[in-house]
């Protein structure tokens, strides 16, 4: 009798608990439904704000794979209300949000770590335009007043620096696309901005072509066996065709990359970058001393160009989003470490055979750079700062996640790699280690020509990002 009573009591308790659980689930579902209805006006306000942008004509924009339209305006729509930045104006906010509650209180929103905040800098295009004009004027004055050889040599150095860098930025996005990488995110548009340098690159090549008597080392040798290949008209004609082909493929890739994922074009761009800049390295650097030859020099030249392009891509992505939690920064830092090692290997692979063979026609490249006093210290600085330096600077995991540290390392690589291009050209021509007004003005011209269209594009055509911010 007692056992039966106990069993009945247990069954009644279980039935009561099951009913209570069903009531709680029903009440929870009703509460969630009521919460959704409460947020409905805010969602409608966000939809109306997006509709206003559409009627304003800001939705007719090319779309990217990651973040929607990439030209026109940046839209941020969250549960708390919509807001956007219209190009050419200061930040405007259209919002229906309620006053934010103190952190930690019920209903307070968590900090938004991945939100993109881009400060408006409308004066930067004018800064780069003035730099360009001052550089042109100063370069002309240096040519007229007795430093013509150094001025034309500086044009060649800057062409060999900025052109691989700009095309390398675009090619890096093609590398990630061809390998089916999905980590670029909003940094992809920063890499695609390198395409804006194509007019300045072609003009810079023509500019260097005009001054070839001041730097073309092959014209001083009349005993060349390969005069059919190393002669002035043929060198510049084939290099011009090669350069136009590189920029054409890059332009076609960028045109499709804003709307789709053009993997076939990405592979073609990678191939033509490697082949094209190998040829430019052979023709415009190695033939400065036509008696010296290295089958690895073309590989070194395009690999180091990719290294410069990667550093420029990383720095530009960080500068465009200084307050953002830039997720791919660790991946970019790892690539910088990898390409510093690869660039070092490509240079070492050239120097090692020259050292153990000790042939006169080959050591003529090494002796000015490793034995003559001013240049030997430049070689040591290059080894410490751009070849092996990033391996030490960016090796710790915490450092690779720091936007500021990676940005500073990228800026250092870009600055020292300019001297690496100078180091490739000047000792071969017998020039002393002198850095003055001819080099400064030529560098100002190319820097202004590179950054002016990028800053103008960044001002008028910012990324459109959509963010959702939920409460706790």
Number of domains: 1
CA(first)-CA(last) distance: 53 Å
Give the helix tally.
Answer: 15
Q: From the helix content, strand content and strand pairing, which structural class follows?
A: mainly alpha
Order of helices and strands: HEEEEHHHHHHHHHHHHHH
Q: What low-confidence regions span 5 or more consecutive residues with pLDDT below 50? A: 1-11, 51-101, 103-119, 460-472
How would a crystallographer describe the biggest sheet? 2 strands, antiparallel
Percentage of β-strand residues: under 5%
The percent range for helix content is 55-70%
| Count of DSSP strands | 4
Radius of gyration (CA) equals 30 Å
Oligomer type: single chain
Side by side, the strands of the main sheet go 1-2
- What is the 3D shape? globular
The mean pLDDT is: 76
Secondary structure layout plus pairing:
Elements: H1 2-55, E1 63-64, E2 68-69, E3 74-78, E4 81-85, H2 124-144, H3 148-178, H4 188-192, H5 198-210, H6 232-257, H7 263-284, H8 297-320, H9 329-357, H10 360-370, H11 373-387, H12 389-393, H13 397-400, H14 403-425, H15 437-460
Antiparallel strand pairs: 1-2, 3-4
In short:
Helix content is 65%, strand content 3%. It is mainly α and 472 residues long.
Overview of the structural elements:
- The protein has one domain.
- It contains 15 helices and 4 strands.
- Helix 3 packs antiparallel against helix 5 (198-210).
- It has 472 residues and is mostly helical.
- A two-stranded antiparallel ribbon has the order 1-2. Strands 3-4 form a two-stranded antiparallel sheet.
- The longest helix is centred in the N-terminal third of the chain and has 54 residues, at 2-55.
């Amino acid at each position: 009798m007692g056992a039966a009573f106990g069993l009945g009591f247990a069954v009644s308790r279980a039935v009561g608990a099951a009913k209570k659980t069903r009531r709680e689930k029903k009440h929870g579902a009703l509460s969630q439904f009521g919460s959704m209805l409460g947020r409905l006006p805010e969602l409608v306000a966000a939809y109306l704000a997006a509709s206003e942008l559409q009627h304003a004509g800001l939705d007719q924009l090319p779309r990217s794979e990651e973040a929607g339209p990439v030209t026109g305006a940046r839209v941020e729509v969250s549960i708390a209300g919509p807001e956007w930045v219209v190009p050419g104006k200061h930040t405007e906010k259209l919002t229906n949000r309620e006053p934010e509650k103190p952190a930690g209180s019920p209903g307070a929103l968590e900090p938004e770590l991945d939100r993109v905040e881009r400060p408006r800098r409308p004066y930067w295009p004018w800064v780069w335009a003035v730099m360009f004009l001052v550089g042109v004027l100063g370069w002309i004055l240096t040519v007229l007043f007795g430093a013509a050889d150094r001025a034309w040599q500086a044009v060649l150095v800057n062409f060999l620096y900025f052109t691989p860098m700009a095309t390398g930025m675009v090619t890096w996005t093609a590398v990630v696309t061809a390998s089916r990488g999905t980590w670029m995110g909003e940094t992809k548009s920063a890499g695609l901005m390198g395409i804006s340098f194509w007019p300045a690159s072609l003009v810079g090549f023509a500019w260097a072509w005009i001054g070839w008597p001041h730097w073309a080392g092959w014209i001083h040798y009349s005993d060349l066996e390969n005069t059919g290949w190393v002669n002035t008209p043929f060198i510049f004609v084939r290099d011009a065709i090669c350069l136009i082909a590189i920029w054409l493929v890059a332009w076609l890739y960028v045109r499709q990359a804003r709307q789709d994922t053009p993997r076939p074009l990405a592979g073609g761009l990678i191939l033509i970058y490697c082949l094209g800049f190998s040829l430019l390295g052979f023709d415009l650097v190695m033939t400065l001393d036509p008696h010296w030859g290295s089958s690895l020099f073309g590989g070194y030249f395009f690999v180091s160009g990719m290294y410069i392009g990667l550093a420029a891509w990383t720095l530009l992505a960080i500068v465009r989003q200084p307050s953002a939690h830039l997720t791919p920064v660790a991946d970019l830092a790892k690539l910088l470490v990898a390409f510093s090692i690869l660039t070092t290997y490509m240079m070492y692979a050239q120097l090692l055979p020259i050292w153990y063979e000790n042939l006169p026609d080959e050591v003529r490249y090494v002796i000015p750079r490793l034995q003559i006093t001013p240049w030997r210290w430049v070689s040591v600085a290059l080894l410490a700062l751009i070849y092996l330096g990033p391996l030490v600077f960016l090796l710790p995991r915490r450092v690779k996640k720091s936007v500021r540290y990676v940005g500073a390392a990228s800026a250092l690589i870009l600055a020292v790699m300019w001297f690496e291009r100078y180091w490739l050209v000047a000792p071969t021509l017998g020039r002393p280690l002198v850095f003055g007004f001819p080099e400064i003005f030529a560098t100002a011209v190319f820097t202004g020509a590179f950054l002016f269209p990028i800053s103008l594009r960044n001002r008028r055509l910012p990324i459109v990002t959509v963010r959702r911010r939920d409460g706790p």
